[in-house]
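Title: Prediction job returns without error message
Component: structure pipeline
Severity: low
Priority: P3
Assignee: unassigned

Description:
Job completed but the reporter wants confirmation the result is attached to the right record. Sequence as submitted:
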Amino acid sequence: MYQISKKIYKIVFIMIKSISCLLLFGFLQAQAQKILLLQTYHQSLLDNHSLQGYLVSEKLDGVRAIWNGKNLITRNGIIIAAPPCFTQFFPPFKLDGELWTTRNDFANIVRIVKQKNPSCEIWKDMKYYVFDVIPNRAISPQECYKEHSTSSSTDSKKHNGDITQYCTLLSRLQIIKDYLTTHTHTTIRVLEYQQIASFHELESLLQNIVANKGEGLVIRKNEFPYEYGRSNNALKLKLFQDSECKVVGYTQGKGKFSGKMGAIICEQSMMNKENQDNISNTAKSSQKQTQNISDRTRTIRFKIGTGFTKTMRDNPPKIGTIITYKFQGFNANGLPRFPVFLRLYQE
């Protein structure tokens, strides 16, 4: 009887643990949606096809991190084990930013961030670059317009809460800048934004950053509150596009790669070609956004044979691994052109 009870207890314990894990996974997935995500740049996504009213910054190739007032967390809600010496002068309010050291150092940044018990010495070159301040609640553009029109008095601001400071990107960044005036010994840096007058100037800036091993640019609409999810008001611009796919097979190498991996075979759900060609219209149409996903996507398979180190050709990514690759648009069949391996996918 005792043995039976013990077995039942063990089964119940395992069930409770499994349910807890599922609930935690669901919570983390929900948390992952509550941050701003960048849309791929296309000129048609800009208001009036113009750069007026937009701010431009460098796109840092680091690890995205949200400061929730107590901890740094990843975009999927996982706490980053940053040493106390790194975060000791952080503010009590929420920030959105990137853990970054220098250009072309992504693998090293990931290695540092993944450590469970890091030392201050290991994190000594790391900085937290803030590119936005997150309000305590979602604020709509309509609220900002109404507040700007009707709540100019001090009494009204005290009563309703001054949300106008959260209605533009520059005013939100001023919040953290003001905080840093009295907290100078911090690892926080505020990402610099600039106004760009022409598309020629934008292209020149992009070329200069990429030539110096930078990743690209971010273009953001200034007069808009912080958004949650992918937004046409926050765009990423690179000389190449990047995406993720799942490793499903390999081909054997030839010549100097004989006996090694020649290429990986990747699988990915991709927009139908007509949606690739008309991505701006799709993004702007709420009706199209809600149509059946299967009508807009298809599963593709393609090979990636470049970008790998000798070590990776000897020990290629395992089947089922998600990788990030770069490419230059799509060919006539809707497949990525000139795909090149970048790295193993990082959440």
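Comment from assignee: result matches the submitted record. The longest strand covers residues 241-252.
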